Amino acid sequence: xxxxxxxxxxxxxxxxxxxxxxxxxxxxxxxxxxxxxxxxxxxxxxxxxxxxxxxxxxxxxxxxxxxxxxxxxxxxxxxxxxxxxxxxxxxxxxxxxxxxxxxxxxxxxxxxxxxxxxxxxxxxxxxxxxxxxxxxxxxxxxxxxxxxxxxxxxxxxxxxxxxxxxxxxxxxxxxxxxxxxxxxxxxxxxxxxxxxxxxxxxxxxxxxxxxxxxxxxxxxxxxxxxxxxxxxxxxxxxxxxxxxxxx
Length: 247
What we know:
247 residues; alpha/beta; Arc Repressor Mutant, subunit A; Rossmann fold; 7-stranded parallel beta sheet; 3-stranded antiparallel beta sheet; 9 helices; 26% strand; elongated
């Protein structure tokens, strides 16, 4: 059996059974264990399956079309978000120009900020207000106010972002996978996040462990564009693509 035929058989078996062993694949293809292992390694690199000890499992990703509003998201993974936010704040120095994206984990950072000479820029109205309450130097981007998130987006937001260069950008996303990278439901929001990240020397994506394996409609940026800060990394393969900090 040719390599292309084996690939079709492997993926067909996986789609039907969701998990297959090397032994089973040897039986249905007539290939040796060494050959099947090479095939599985190749397909895993192509992100068409997850390779596990003794075989492979189907990649299962949860697709998100709509984004919950801020009040719903606040109640999700609260302890984990707080740990992530606390660590993220420890990275900020007095000479930083910091971009703080919309998102509940990024917003949680404000609670842990102490007096600093850093300058903060945000597209989130609530974040800007909380930063101002702490007496921190704060700029808020212009743009159309997005219902449910208290953030701004659109052409005016993009124009505002182009006027800044950041030393650090903290970005929130809806989902993160090895194949699709960092994603969010809104293309406008994704565009703003990407532009902010592209104008920053250091980019950090703040995601609790529940975000892994989830995919939304719009690509924010690929994994290698940001350091991942999370409470728990469920799949160590992410470290092959970018820096990961578990807190």
